[in-house]
Specification:
ten-stranded mixed β-sheet, about 400 residues, 2 domains, Creatine Amidinohydrolase, Chain A, domain 1, alpha+beta, Creatine Amidinohydrolase, 12 helices, globular
């Protein structure tokens, strides 16, 4: 079976993004980001920003420079000057220059951290406030202080910037959603009794890797519906085998250059769901539909709690967050559970147009033995929520 029998289905504009050797955001989009960063700097009284590291899940380094960094890389940003990117390893430099042509890329034997500090000194930052974004340990704090800088944390303000998406970011997210859809549809199509969770992971990755997708996450759970002992997908694959009458449930996020979709689905293996699992999924579907309906600009966390009240009313609970921000910026606020099982303090915020959030009612029994997964990433528009995925909703059944 050729991978291209199940290729992405995208409109021409998005297909062109996927086909590009290296996709790039427009100059106008990158200028918009720099202007937004400058504004939060000014509010904090910072003259420069030091961006450190990242995890290829929407780091500030990539947002600013387009370089999908790992740890040990540093960016110096000063309004009106060219961004400077200092890479950790010498073999990173050539690719970084290709991916970030608007950025001055450097590597040196003294190390990326020392080069970034030297660049800040060259820019006259001694005695000035330096905004910090990204990973920040005590050792770095000591070095910045010793150099005469005054570090200030811009993390909260930056996170707020990432809650809403630009039109170009939404294009990239739509590609990530399509790649994620390929994975869950392949799993439904190909899962068979006798397969291990490792083989399920292979099915998932084989669906999007040939088209340029990268793994953000893929979690799977396997258990008998007649005698369940697993209520949530495992973050690490185990050597557990699939059998007829099992449920395979999954959470998948395939990424297009750090812009992923996210989808949750449950698959009954060569049988119909048992009554317990049918009830669990019916409640999950009800909660999903109610939350989807209220997600519009101006909605608040209490509206989500009200929409999800059916879960506790039916005698069930949840095993994961119910709603969370997502897409191009990692795991984002608001992170919400239910009133009965919160995911943390209730945030004081409202949903806004162009936020992207995951609705994922991971409903389970109170004894934590049986559970289901359903949900996906959605966009909040001025008129309400919009699906970004095309994979079929509902409790799926493998052949």
């Amino acid at each position: 079976m050729s991978a291209h029998e199940f290729a992405p289905i995208l409109p021409p504009k998005l297909q062109a993004l996927l086909n590009a050797e290296v996709p790039h955001f427009s100059k106008a989009e990158l200028d918009r980001r720099r202007a937004a960063l400058t504004q939060i700097m000014e509010q904090a009284g910072a003259r420069h920003v030091l961006v450190s590291g990242g995890d290829r899940k929407g780091s500030a380094t990539q947002w600013l420079t387009e370089w999908p960094t790992t740890s040990g890389h540093f960016v110096v940003f000063t309004p009106g000057e060219q961004d400077a990117l200092f890479v950790k390893n010498p073999n990173n430099a050539a690719l970084a220059r290709l991916i970030s042509p608007q950025t001055n890329v450097g590597w040196g034997a003294v190390g990326s951290q020392e080069m970034a500090i030297a660049e800040l000194l060259r820019r006259g930052a001694k005695g000035q406030k330096i905004g910090i974004l990204g990973s920040y340990g005590h050792s770095l704090h000591e070095k910045l202080s010793a150099a005469g800088f005054m570090p200030v944390d811009l993390g909260r303000a930056y996170t707020k910037l990432r809650l809403t998406k630009s039109a170009e970011e939404l294009d990239w997210l739509r590609v990530g959603c399509e790649l994620t859809d390929l994975a869950v549809m392949a799993l439904e199509r190909e899962v068979r009794p006798g397969m291990s969770e490792h083989e399920l992971a292979n099915i998932i990755e084989r669906a999007y890797v040939p088209f340029g997708g990268a793994t953000q996450i893929h979690y799977t759970g396997v258990t008998s519906m007649a005698n369940p002992d697993c209520c949530v997908p495992s973050q690490l694959a185990r050597n557990r085998k699939v059998a007829r009458g099992d449920i395979v449930f999954t959470e998948i996020a395939a990424s297009f250059w750090s812009y992923p979709g996210q989808i949750q689905r449950s698959i009954a293996v060569q049988t119909e769901p048992t009554s317990v699992y049918a009830d669990l999924h019916a409640v999950a579907d009800e909660a999903y539909a109610a939350i989807f309906k209220i997600l519009k600009p101006g909605a608040r966390p209490d509206d989500v709690y009200d929409a999800a009240a059916c879960i506790a009313q039916r005698g069930f609970t949840i095993c994961d967050d119910l709603v969370h921000g997502y897409g191009g910026g990692g795991y984002l606020p608001p992170i919400l559970g239910t009133r009965e099982r919160p995911s943390g303090p209730k945030p004081d915020m409202t949903f806004e147009e162009n936020m992207t959030v995951v609705i994922q009612p991971s409903v389970m029994t109170l004894d934590e033995k049986a559970g289901v997964q359903t949900g996906e990433l959605v966009l909040i528009t001025k008129n309400g929520a919009e699906r970004l995925h095309r994979a079929h909703m509902g409790f799926r059944r493998s052949i």
